[in-house]
Design goal:
By secondary structure, the protein is mainly alpha-helical. Helices cover 98% and strands 0% of the residues. It is built from 1 helix and no strands. The protein starts with a helix and ends with a helix.
Length: 81
């Protein structure tokens, strides 16, 4: 009986060691995936910031164009009057 108990304990130790190894590699893989996801999110954030700057620049240019056109129309209207 003592011998059987010893084998059971050794078996449990082996299973526990294998389980710990599997968990270690699983967490290592999970950590790598989270790191890759974080890098991807940072890249996307940079791209969105660049797009926002371009959009703001376009809006500013359009506002300037509208103001220029309004000034020209006002000058033409003033010259005709």
């Amino acid at each position: 009986m003592e011998r059987c108990l010893y084998r059971s304990i050794e078996g449990i130790k082996i299973v526990a060691a294998i389980g710990i190894g599997v968990l270690f590699f699983a967490f290592t893989g999970l950590t790598a995936e989270v790191s890759n996801m974080n890098e991807s999110i940072q890249d996307q954030t940079k791209a969105i910031e660049e797009q926002t700057q371009v959009t703001e620049s376009i809006k500013e240019s359009m506002d300037n164009l509208i103001a220029t056109i309004q000034d020209a129309v006002n000058k033409i209207t003033g010259a005709i009057s």
